[in-house]
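Hi R.,

Here's the chain you asked about this morning:
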Amino acid sequence: MTEAMAATARWQSCAIVEIATRTPAIKSVFLRLSETFDYTAGQHVDVRLIAPNGYTAMRSYSIASDPSDSKVIELAIERLVDGEVSPFFHDVAQVGDTIELRGPLGGHFLWPGASNRPVLLIGAGSGVVPLMAMIRYRKASAEPVPVALLLSSRTWREVPFRNELLEFERSLPDFALALALTREPATHRTDFSRRIDARMVAEVAARLPESPGCAFVCGSNAFVDIAADAALALGLEAGAIKTERYGA
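And here is the predicted structure, written out as tokens:
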């Protein structure tokens, strides 16, 4: 479905209107669309860079921003050591530059919409980006959907959107946040100091008012395998567990 959508999506030029540092390895790039489009939280866009000699590099990035305002979209881009596109956004791109993108793309990793069943979100590092769009949309739309986010990060300093997530935890009564720090002790009583496992996922799911109706998992292949198996162990059907994978 994504390939078919990409084939019909039209490329457009977008201006960079803001660049913000999220963590030492992740920057948010805010792009003003020349042609606005409607999208659902969880979708992504393709970004294309063309060198003066015609060499073209293209990557897909999840949209982090709330779909309620689609004039400017936010892409949170992690620097990859061997990447062709991410170093451009970290080292070269400046406000006022224009880049090409097409979208929105992706038809399976989508916020389920109004529901009376809680939603479990599980992410690792920059895998939180599409989940962030869901949380922001959930807040903006005021849909009465309880949400729990389990986010794995190596350290407290490397937690993407940390301050915003902590504010959501304080201000939204139906939002539960749990951080799993893998390389330093947790600072909050409700957080964890280890890699995710089935027991951890079950404990976070239990913070919801009732069993989740669906789960969204985004991270590396190994992370997604562990998290998806843990979600299955909760009793969720396989079709109710949506996954996005990156890297090896």
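One quick note: Residues 66 and 136 are 5 Å apart (CA to CA).

Cheers,
M.
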